[in-house]
């Protein structure tokens, strides 16, 4: 493995989210990531590598005994090679076929109107305004998700 640090910005938060989810009793996790087709290849080797070990033996066993499915969001899948659509498509995956996998990026359109309001603000004020808008979006999303009957947890990563 040439570069264990290549995905460290994703490995660290993913492991810190994945372990508590698995420990809570959920044994199937669907991870949607723009480059899941490449990212997942050496995932276990990266997070257990002695130079940058992110999990211990117990956590490694938990991850290996769980069903983790790696999928590429539908919009991004169109730009991938043909084989990706067969192996990493939401369309061919049980219980997620009509999911787009793009929900993490769905707030961009609503934040577009904010750009004209914050462009002349100072750094701190702009940051506070954007954080408030993102917090409002997340709150509204959380309220609506509480009304859904969901069996699985989907993790969305976008960088």
Q: What is the helix fraction of residues, given as a range? A: 40-55%
Summed up, the helix count is 9
Low-confidence stretches: 150-154
The strands making up the biggest β-sheet line up spatially as 2-1-3
- Average pLDDT number: 79
SSE class: mainly alpha
SSE topology sketch:
Blueprint: H1 8-23, E1 28-33, H2 36-39, H3 43-48, H4 57-65, E2 67-71, H5 74-77, H6 82-87, H7 108-112, H8 114-118, H9 123-145, E3 153-157
What's the short version?
This protein is mainly alpha-helical and 159 residues long.
Give a structural overview.
The chain contains 9 helices and 3 strands. It has one domain. It has a 3-stranded parallel β-sheet with strand order 2-1-3. It has 159 residues and is mainly α. Mean pLDDT is 79; it is low at 150-154.
């Amino acid at each position: 493995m040439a570069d264990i640090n290549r995905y460290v910005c994703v490995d660290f938060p993913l492991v810190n989210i994945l372990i508590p989810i698995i420990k809570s009793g959920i044994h199937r996790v669907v991870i949607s990531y723009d480059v899941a087709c490449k990212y997942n290849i050496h995932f276990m080797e990266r997070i257990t590598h002695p130079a940058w070990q992110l999990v211990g033996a117990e956590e490694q066993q938990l991850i290996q005994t769980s069903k983790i499915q790696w999928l590429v969001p539908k919009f991004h899948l169109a730009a991938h090679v043909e084989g990706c659509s067969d192996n990493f498509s939401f369309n061919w995956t049980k219980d997620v076929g009509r999911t787009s996998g793009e929900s993490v990026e769905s707030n961009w359109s609503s934040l577009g109107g904010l750009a004209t309001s914050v462009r002349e603000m100072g750094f701190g004020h702009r940051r506070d305004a954007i954080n408030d808008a993102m917090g409002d979006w997340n709150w509204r999303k959380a309220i609506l998700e509480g009304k859904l009957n969901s069996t699985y947890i989907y993790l969305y990563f976008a960088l």
